[in-house]
Amino acid sequence: MAAAGILSLSASAVAYASPVADPLFEYGVSIHDARVLPSPRGGRMGAGYMTVAAPRGDAIIGVEAAFGIELHESLEDDAGVVRMTRRDRIEIPAGTEVVFEPGGLHVMLIGVDPPMKVGDEVSITLTFEKAGEVEILFPVEDRAGPDGHSDHGG
Predict the structure, then answer these.
(1) Is the pTM above the cut of 0.85?
(2) Domain ranges (residues) in the chain
(3) How far apart, in whole angstroms, are the C-alpha atoms of residue 64 and residue 99?
(4) Which residue in 22, 24, 62, 99 is deepest, having the highest Cβ count within 10 Å?
(5) What is the DSSP letter of 101?
(6) % residues pLDDT > 70 (the chain)
């Protein structure tokens, strides 16, 4: 694994780092459209979404925060029941983008204290197999999108 480097990013930034001995630059990892949607009841739980690309390929092998946090995927079984499954590793194939979105891959936030409010930022550190650690500030957004409709997928 590459030496871990910490890069603090805002959600609107694309996570291309400078070429000075930075594993993010070496491996070309980019992260954009990061956001957290709090649960409808109180903001102590929520889900984080983003888009991750790694032109040379990489994998997310860990996630950390100041509260409980896990990588999850929502999967539908043969009976049509959707269940969340914990994931220890999420592959980012070379030349593709992996989208974390409602009803699919997401970062599950558990027991956030104090509860999240719209407008807050939540610091989450992703650990990549090759690129190392990346700290990202995820803005907390309203479950209703810019068009005023709620996020029906999760």
Answers:
(1) no
(2) 8-139
(3) 19
(4) 24
(5) -
(6) 76
